[in-house]
Amino acid sequence: MKPGPSRFIVFADGSSLTNPGGPGGTGYIVFDREERALRFGGRHYSVDGQNAVTNNRMELRAVLEALELLPRGATAEVHSDSQYLVNALTTWVHGWRRRGWMTSQGTPVLNRDLFEALLTQQAELAVRYSWVRGHAGHPANEAVDALAKSAAMKSNAPSSEQILAALQKAGVDVSVRA
User: Fold this and answer.
1) What pTM was computed for the model?
2) What residue numbers bound the domain in which 143 lies?
3) Is 27 domain-assigned?
4) Is residue 79 flagged as an active site residue?
5) Is residue 135 annotated as a catalytic residue, yes or no?
6) pLDDT digits (tens, 9 = 90+) for 18-36
């Protein structure tokens, strides 16, 4: 039997204007189906600690930022156009952990710090990951792409009205219940 819809639906994307090197940005949309509440945003990164700003790091950071305020025990569907992120968190991470954070080729896992932070964060939640094709007209994915790029460029981001319209076009019921 297929599980019912999660309380939270999340779309996340990252952007590095020069990969690697940045600057970069994150974009996320979180819609609470129960409370009918919208939260969205993004963050600019000129540097990322000791690491180079990369597309993959921005993708991972976007999901971290989206999940950070969800209540313990909440269910969330995370949609990303990053096959790297979805495959890593649903398949590869199990082998990495068994091998002491080494890849199947015996090299250290890149972005381990962010994967470990995500695993810690999602341990308090029930998260399902889903891949969506990027730059293929998916309205909510296009909206988070715009959020990530605007954060990277420090330019104007989409408005809440535009975000809600994108969610609605993507089939998310954003109506307010009476």
Assistant:
1) 0.95
2) 8-169
3) yes
4) no
5) yes
6) 999 999 999 999 999 999 9
